[in-house]
Design brief:
The chain is an alpha/beta fold. It has a single domain, classed as Rossmann fold. The chain is about 45% helix and about 15% strand. Strands 3-2-1-4-5-6-7 form a 7-stranded parallel beta sheet, with helices on both faces. β4, α4 and β5 form a beta-alpha-beta unit. The protein is globular. It starts with 6 loop residues before the first strand and ends in an 11-residue tail after the last strand.
Length: about 260
């Protein structure tokens, strides 16, 4: 158990990849702040699972698209569990639309959740660490689309590209404080957000032809990478992206 004594906050951890990350880090010995936006019952179920592993947990609701929401999330997590050592910026949304049809509302939703949220959650977390004079780790769940074009998801790609550059920049700025920051870039992962794809054999088969390992990733493939970056095994890694995509990025062609 490589995270014994650590407290982790995982944003967007009531379901999908975030849920898998929260449970995996608890299995590694961490106490976990579970975060949700609109499904408190799912967050409570994750909290109960973590507590069944003998770890402490709290479920905290927050609107991560606002600075006040990110600041309150950090404050509430610290108040409940005493401190936070590791921040996993996992919460994210996407909107499918041709560029000329993208609305200001949807653009703001995607950029505020995927980039503004991690930016200011990280800021509040860093201030917490500085107040304790403590080192820490930040792990952003980005996407292969921080590099890989994805037609009809331009706002999403812009948000993930911004997250990549934010990570590189902060790796330099935060290193003197003993704080590391890295991205994980998942490819096609089997989660509730991909339910429609999973039930469309033609689209699923077309996607699988672009993945050399010939399968979708599982949430556990991502959570294992997070567990590594969160541990002392990764203390000398910062400012980089770990791609978890089955080879998709280097074999992809838009149909």
């Amino acid at each position: 158990m490589k995270l014994t004594g650590k407290v982790v906050l995982v944003t967007g951890s009531s379901q999908g990849i975030g849920q898998a990350i929260a449970i995996r880090l608890a299995q590694e010995g961490a106490d976990v702040v579970v975060n949700y936006h609109s499904h408190p019952e799912e967050a409570e179920a994750v909290k109960a699972k973590i507590e069944s592993l003998g770890r402490r947990s709290v479920a905290v609701g927050a609107d991560l698209s606002s600075v006040a929401g990110t600041s309150k999330l950090i404050d509430d997590g610290v108040a409940a569990l005493g401190k936070i050592d590791i921040l996993v910026n996992n919460a994210g949304v996407e909107k499918n639309a041709s560029f000329w049809d993208v609305t200001e509302h949807d653009y703001d939703l995607v950029l505020n959740t995927n980039l503004k949220g991690p930016f200011f959650a990280t800021q509040a977390f860093v201030k917490h660490l500085q107040g304790r004079k403590a080192p820490g780790k930040i792990i952003n769940i980005s996407s292969v689309h921080e590099d890989l074009p994805f037609p009809h998801f331009t706002a999403y790609c812009a948000s993930k590209g911004g997250l990549k550059m934010m990570t590189r920049n902060l790796s330099i700025e935060l290193a003197p404080f003993g704080i590391t920051i890295n991205n994980i870039a998942p490819g096609a992962i089997e989660t509730p957000i991909n339910t429609a794809l999973l039930h469309d054999p033609a689209k699923l088969n077309a996607l699988l032809q672009n993945i050399p390992l010939n399968r979708l990733g599982q949430p556990g493939d991502v959570s294992s990478a997070v567990a590594f970056l969160a541990s002392s095994d990764a203390d000398y890694i910062t400012g980089t992206t770990l791609v978890i995509d089955g080879g998709l990025t280097w074999n992809y062609s838009e149909q």
